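Chapter review: from sequence to fold.
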Amino acid sequence: MNATRPTTEAPAEPLRRYRPPAARPGAAVALAAAALLTALASLAAPAHAQGEFPAWEFPKTDFEKRTVELSEIMSGGPPRDGIPAIDLPRYATTDEASKWLDPDEPVIAVERGGKARAYPLQILIWHEIANDELGGVPISVTFCPLCNSAIVFDRRLDGAVLDFGTTGRLRLSDLVMYDRQTETWWQQLTGEGLIGEHAGRELARLPAAIVAWNDFRAAFPNGSVLSRETGHTRAYGSNPYSGYDSATQPFLFRDKPDPRLPAMERVLHVIAGGTERIYPFGAFTDEPVINDEVGGEPVVVMSRSGTLSVLDERTIADSRRIPSAAAYSRRQGERVLEFEVREGRIADAGTGSVWNLFGEAVEGPLAGSRLEPRSRGDHFAFAWLAFHPDADVYGVPRAE
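The token string follows.
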């Protein structure tokens, strides 16, 4: 069931059209191989992978209680927990992790309760879910490679703490998770309960951003890092979806992509004042810092180029570079700040203080000050717009 979110009017003057990444010759071959492997896996899987849902695989799930049609859900190839979630995470220090992380490699940065932790995508691309606790808050850090969706959830619901696994199914190309307590099925990109006891409920999303490892390490030298010691043997550092983000058609996506943006354009999801807006990464080429207003709240979208794509070359360290981005409220006490780029650094025009990608002033009169985060995740445009067809897209006028 497609969700509808509150919208705002488009900017008065439309911005430049966005530049999709150029397709690489190897992308089609890689995707064809992936499609073949998935087809073979589906043929080898039991009949439920083709649309039936026998009680033996999810015996607790009430398939009569649901918000979507079962026909909308398809097999992704692996069975239940065939892509294993990380349930007993171990951690490395920033010094230890730097021995196996490239300086520009992407990580999901999460802060809770005064603690900061990095979740390398070279690990999550193989596991998709990490059930963890940070700063006293039980969280699930999730990454769907097919949608490039990095989302962090508070896994508390009605006083209970849930932990999540992979169903082996997809809806609109996006990961369908399940919780092990009730075996309710959940949509990763929206956090909505689809089938089972909690159908119609929604998990709380927490601020998160994909950033380069060196940016995280500089901002949080005492932060922790999800370790490669996961209890599983995987080719960490390699990308099993080689060439995917240069493709023109999303894998296992049956619908027609929204024409407002290239399907594989990365977008940043921002929520403020009860309103949501997405910012295409293509806009950051000409506007690395964007001062805007969302839901009546002044926000700033900060970006920095140079982060490695996790969905490009087979070896992540050899991949092309893309921007990282995060959004914050521009309110600082009684004032509203205006941001700009000065000599390659982000500064506010009023005081000249220098800010990092984590919304912290690191130099100048406001050093030590922090901005309130307003971003909730990074995604491919086709995926976000499939679930939010009425979404407000920065720089793209609404259809009359």
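Two observations follow directly from the output. The helical segments are 25-44, 94-97, 121-127, 213-219, 381-387. Residues 61-226 form one domain.
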